[in-house]
Structure formats: structure tokens, C-alpha cells
């Protein structure tokens, strides 16, 4: 009997949702960073075994939105919990349980969908402390299962897949076996470039960055030509991203090119430009244009 199902991964920003998804799939489909609010849209990741298929939905971290983009992100995360077979509520167990966690759990009360507590980052704290925090969480919600893992180090992640199999139902294979994400290649490239910006800049800048790949074609010489615009919200941010004598932009381009070459197994010529689009995170038009609206709503 073939089993399948949809499982949504939700939690506060920065708890490790995307890291978990990538680990479960054995391939990077969602970018990660040490900055909160890295993921901006819902991302489907597909795990296919001999007898099962799990479609994971990675979501933006649930937070108090400060602009229209934030509102769209939280809406995307919330809508992902509807019509799924199970919800993974993932938390960073190395940090004290805070208002952010209880806020999400309150929103999940009275749901019929089972909620699995995934206590992540156990590599960072003692077992006793992890146990105490898990107990505290258990008193806040009636979880259908609880598992402690390290998404980064892959501790207990296969155990999680085994556990998730119990939540699947007899059903079709929704995606072909070799497909691991529904994101178009263009979007993957945009995200790869944005990840490098997140890695190389500090708090204020990366949140206001959007990347648009507007050209992607293999030239006669066999090299893949990729051209992209990086949009920032302020002139000062443009200067930061370009860096002294263009150094930072060069490094962003270099790191992104290496990853894109690796992804396509092809030589790549990457060109990037930095443009200012004032306060785009509050412009519904720009959010639509960058594909950041929640399409299911
Ligand atoms: N030590 C440790 N770090 C982890 C673990 N899982 C994730 N991280 C780190 O936590 C940070 C956030 O990880 P992400 O996967 O981007 O978190 P996210 O929940 O998807 O974040 P948003 O997109 O902002 O909602 C990154 O620096 C990860 O490397 C873990 O199990 N152990």
C-alpha cells in the first residue's frame, strides 16, 4: 500500500525549519541563515520512499508583522496548516520558551490536525534542560507526538521520518519520484543569490533585499548566462551591498556563481546589478512582482 500526505512545518523565525527540510530531503531546497525571517514564501519539499511520499511545506517564521511583506509571510505560514495531514511545530529548545511559541500554540488550539512537537537544536544544550523545556511545552499543548532532534547535525531526523510515516494515509504519489521541490529553477537561483547577501551583510540590510533573475540562458559557448537585479530599500543599502570598490558585490556574485554551477553542473556567467526600490516591502505591487504573495489565499 502506497502512503502519502502533506506535512506543514511551522515555528518562530530562526528555529531551524528550513535546515530541517533540507536535512530530511538530503538536498538544499530552502535557503537558511542566522538571520530571522529568511524564508519568505511557502516551499514544498518532496520526500519519496519506496512505499511513501511526504510533501513538506516549509513556511516563513510566524512573527508580529511590521510591514506588508511580513503580513504576507505570516498569512502564508498560517494557511499552510489547513488541509494537511499533520503539523510539525518546531521550536529552538536551546532557548527559553517565549511568547512567540505560546502565541503560535494558541493559534493551533481546537484543531483536529495532529501537531507534532519537534524540539530542535538539542546539540546546543544539556539533556536535562531539554527535557525540562519539553515538559513545559507539553503542559501548553496536547501534542500527538514529541521528538527531540538536531536538524543541523542530523540527530534523530531519520527517527522523525519514521514517526511521520504513521501520519500518512493510503494515497497517490503526488509528485514524480525524482522531484524534490516545486520551486522553478529561476526562483531557486534568486534564493541562492539572496542567501549569499544574508550571509555577507548585517541585520538591517538583508531584510529589505529582493532578487529578480531576469535572464537565464545557455549561450553558444555552452556557458549559462544568468543576469539578476538585487533590489534594496535605500540608497545607503545599495552602497553597503556594493561595498568598497565593489568588493562585497563581487564576493556575493562569486559565492552565488559557485553554487549555481554546482546546481546545474555547468559553467555559469553571472551578472548582478543593485537597484533601489524605496520601501518595497510595503508596496503590494512589488510584493506581487517578486512572487512573495501567498498564492493560495
Ligand atoms: N546548533 C544548531 N543550529 C541550528 C540547528 N538547526 C538550525 N540551526 C541554525 O539556526 C539558524 C536558523 O536556521 P533556519 O533553518 O534558517 O531557520 P528557519 O526557522 O527556517 O528561519 P526563518 O526562515 O527565519 O523562519 C541557522 O543559522 C541554522 O544553521 C540545529 O539543530 N542546531
UniProtKB/TrEMBL annotation:
Entry's Gene3D superfamilies? Answer: 3.30.300.20, P-loop containing nucleotide triphosphate hydrolases
User: Where along the chain is GTP bound?
Assistant: 11-18, 58-62, 120-123
Q: Where is this region: G5?
A: 149-151
Q: Which GO terms describe its cellular component?
A: cytosol; plasma membrane
Ordered alphabetically, the record's keywords are: Cell membrane, Cytoplasm, GTP-binding, Membrane, Nucleotide-binding, Ribosome biogenesis, RNA-binding, rRNA-binding
Q: Where is this region: G4?
A: 120-123
Q: Which SMART domains match?
A: AAA
- Name one matching Pfam family: MMR_HSR1
Where's it found, cell-wise? Cytoplasm; Cell membrane
User: Where do the segments described as G1 lie?
Assistant: 11-18
Provide the Era-type G domain boundaries: 3-170
Classification via InterPro entries = AAA+_ATPase, G_ERA_dom, GTP-bd, GTPase_Era-like, KH_dom-like_a/b, KH_dom_type_2, KH_sf_prok-type, P-loop_NTPase
Biological processes annotated in GO: ribosomal small subunit assembly
Gene Ontology MF terms: GTP binding; GTPase activity; ribosomal small subunit binding; small ribosomal subunit rRNA binding
Q: What does this protein do?
A: An essential GTPase that binds both GDP and GTP, with rapid nucleotide exchange. Plays a role in 16S rRNA processing and 30S ribosomal subunit biogenesis and possibly also in cell cycle regulation and energy metabolism.
Q: Which PANTHER family match?
A: GTPASE ERA, GTPASE ERA, MITOCHONDRIAL
Question: Which family does the similarity line name?
Answer: Belongs to the TRAFAC class TrmE-Era-EngA-EngB-Septin-like GTPase superfamily. Era GTPase family.
User: What is the name listed in the Swiss-Prot or TrEMBL entry for this protein?
Assistant: GTPase Era
In its UniProt entry, the species of origin is given as: Alkalicella caledoniensis
